[in-house]
Structure formats: structure tokens, C-alpha cells
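Render this sequence as a predicted structure.
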Amino acid sequence: MLTNHEAEAALLGSILAGNGTVEDVLPLAPEEFSHLPYALVFRAMAYLHRRHQPVNELTVNDRLKAAGEMSEVGGPTAVMALTGNLPPLATPAPFAAMVREAARRRRVREAAIRAAEMACDPNVTPEKAALDASAALAQLGAAGVDKVRTFTDSMETLIERLHAIRSGEYQHYIPTNIDVWDELLGGLSRGIVTLLPAYPGVGKGAVAGRMILNLGQCGRKVGLFSLEDPEYWVAKRYLADASGVPVRTLMSAERTSDIRDQYIEDAVMQSREWGENIFIDERTGLSADQIAATARQMVVQMGAEVIIIDNASEIDVSGDERHDIRSAHMVRVLRDVAKGLNVAVVLLMHLKKNGNSSKEGAFIRPTTELLKNTTGFAEVARAIVALWRLEGDNSSIVATILKQTEGERDIDFTMPFNASAGLVESIGGRKREGEKGYTESERGAR
């Protein structure tokens, strides 16, 4: 049923009759009513409720008059009639559920109509039409789930989760098998967005690539959105690492020895045992909603536990609103993917340039102030691990834990770096006790 005028009238009538309050039906909105006069009456009720004023026929009529909407409602007699055919002892909450359901059905229909319009639009590709439609429908599906629970409900969920963890059926922290990362961060936490920021060339891909390979080789499924580089960037680094042939040699016409060729062939064969665990989308110019729709498919249909996005600056945030508003929407969408699907989301991003710095950015210990669109990214992310380098050291990448909600932060650790393959090593690395490096402001004071 797309409209339910009877339920809308009964909801309003039961509130006017004193059988319940506006509070009982929140967060119901006037826009969820299909009959305009009923929507206007409820808007008047909500207005009075927000100002802690009584809600009855007299006050509602006064508010409708003040808003110039009394004639659209049908006059005071129309408001009075709402209590006339009210079922005995009717309360508003059950009718509110009916109103919400009808509103959701209308929104689904509207999304389907929009999808049909895009399918017929020669300026919209079938792929974009499908992605936009699936994103809209997925958002509607998530919105229809009842999220209001009690503390007791949450405790029961936690106990069930703890039992599953103890029995080995569930892991809250997904190991990356990068030893020092897992020691200090536990791995990748489900349900949150982890930011991996750095200046270009420092090593975001070296860390993310190692994570992707380790996850796939251990039988875990991971989805990669390769918005910036070709789909094979992880594959070529894997071959270089496994064969010992540097990436530059691998990707050139330079002849390698027969034994190196054999190593490459063996690595290719070995990758077939786990390569199906890694899903790659290399399309460019995707919006956050399109990424979210594809990520949901990777998780629900393919079983992905980790989603890695390379990188934030390549996500399409074009639109009529201010750039900061569009960027905030992007990070909220990615947060909803992590939280709603209970997966780990890793977002690679560039640090913004420090115009006051006389030192190359790659060698400055990062702070949250260097994140692009700092407020949106830093607030939504529950873990931020920024990467940088020590001058004169090409054998390691330094990571600074700027934020994590369940562990230490403002600490540094190093990961051994295989420059010829463009990957960090899984084994080795250490926490840099008492070696914080320095920020640019501290450098100037020296």
C-alpha cells in the first residue's frame, strides 16, 4: 500500500485525543504523510512539541492559522473531525509504523521510476544507471531497518559476539599479517573507516598492497577500488616481490635470466591458488554512492571482509553544494558501508601541502592538520595511520598512529620497505620508543 490515509488520520486523532504524544511517533516527519492536509497538521504538532507547548485542537488550530495553512487543512472542523472516527483506545505508535511503511514504499517506487528514466537517457551509460539505482535502493533498504535498541539489547549482542570470538567463529580485528601493524593496532577493525594518509611517493601503495596480498593469501576476501592506478598495480608488485625481479625491470624490455623467468612463472602459478579472493574495480570517476553500491555487492555477494579505496582524491564529489559538504557526505557514506556491513574500510588519501614548510613534506612527521578536509575525515575515521620517511633511510617507512579509539596513539613504528618491489615487508619493524621525529613547527624552533 503506497498511501494509508486512514492510518495518518488515526495517528493525528489519537494524539489530539490524548492517547499519546508526538514523542511516541518520532522520528516520523511530515514528509512521510501522503495526504497534504494531514502533513500540515502533523507539522503544526511537531512545532508545538519542540517548544514544549501542549498539543490539542486549540493549539494546533492556532498554529495552523499563524502559519497561514488553515485553509489548506480544511478549517477547524477538519481538525476536529480527526478524533471523530477514532478506534477505541487507539494509540499513535502503531499507526506511525503504518505511515512509515507506506512512505518507504513510495520512496522505493520513486527510485525505480528514476532508474527507468536513467535507463532511457542516452546521456547516461547503463552501468552508471545500474550503480545509481542500486545505491539508492540499498540506502532505502538500510533506512528501513529498526536501529533503536536498548542497552540490554546491545549487551546481549556483545556477549554473543564475545562467545563467537572466544570460539574462533568471529574476528573483530582482521589480521593484516604485517607484524608490527597487528601488534600495535590489532589489525584492521571491523565496522570503522581507517585512514592511510601520506604525501605522494611515501608508500601508501606499499602498505595497502601488502595488506591486500596478505589477506588474499590467507583466504580472506578483499575488495580494491583502484581509482588512481591500473588494475594490475598490486599484481606487478607481487611478481616483483615473489620473483626478486625489480618492478622497473619487470615492466621493461630488459631480458631477465632463465632462473628469474622461472621464478616469475612459479609466482603466477601460486597466485592462482588465492587470486580469486581479491576483487578489483579500476573504474575512475566513481562517486561515493557508486563505490558504496559496488562495495555492498563485494561484501554481500562475494564475501569481502575488507574494502580498500585508492584514493580519496579520485572520488567524484562534483555537485552544486559546497566542496566541504560534498566531502563530508563522501566520508559518511564510507562510514556507513563499514558500520552497516561490519567490514573494515581503508581509505588512502594525500596529505595537503604545507605552504609554510621549508622541508619536503615526506620527511615531516604528520599531524591531523595536514589531512585534506580535516574536519570531515578526522571526525568520521576511527583510526588514522599516517606514513612518512626518515631522511636518508630508503629501507623503511615510518607510520604514526594519529588516532585509534581502542589503543595507543601518537606513537611511531617502522615497517621494512622493499623498494624494488614497492611493498613493505610482513616481518620485522618496530615501535620507535622515544623517537617521535618532529613536526615542522618543532623543527623551526630548533
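Summary. The domain at 1-148 is CATH 1.10.860.10 (DNAb Helicase; Chain A). The first helix runs from residue 5 to 16.
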